[in-house]
Write a structure and sequence with these properties.
Elements (H helix, E strand, L loop, with lengths): L1 H13 L2 H7 L3 H6 L3 H22 L2 H8 L5
Helix pairs in contact: 1-4
């Protein structure tokens, strides 16, 4: 599963036009980000790659616990 997430994230970074054509423009990215939609999809791709690597290594649970530690 992690390899699939990394592959999708890599696709978002390498060819951001594909998710842009498939998903469409983001009004948030056009209004608030200077790079526009292409850089927004690249940023999402980098986040997907990081999440995929966390899934591959099994550290996603630790990261979730660390991020939500203030609730406990």
């Amino acid at each position: 599963m992690g390899i699939l997430i990394v592959a999708i994230g890599f696709l978002f970074v390498k060819k951001p036009e594909i998710p842009y054509d498939f998903i469409g423009p983001s009004q948030f990215a056009m209004k608030w980000l200077s790079g526009g939609n292409i850089n927004f999809y690249k940023f999402i791709g980098v986040l997907l790659c990081i999440v995929g690597l966390l899934v591959i290594t099994g550290l996603y649970g630790n990261v979730i616990n660390w991020g939500l530690n203030f609730i406990y």
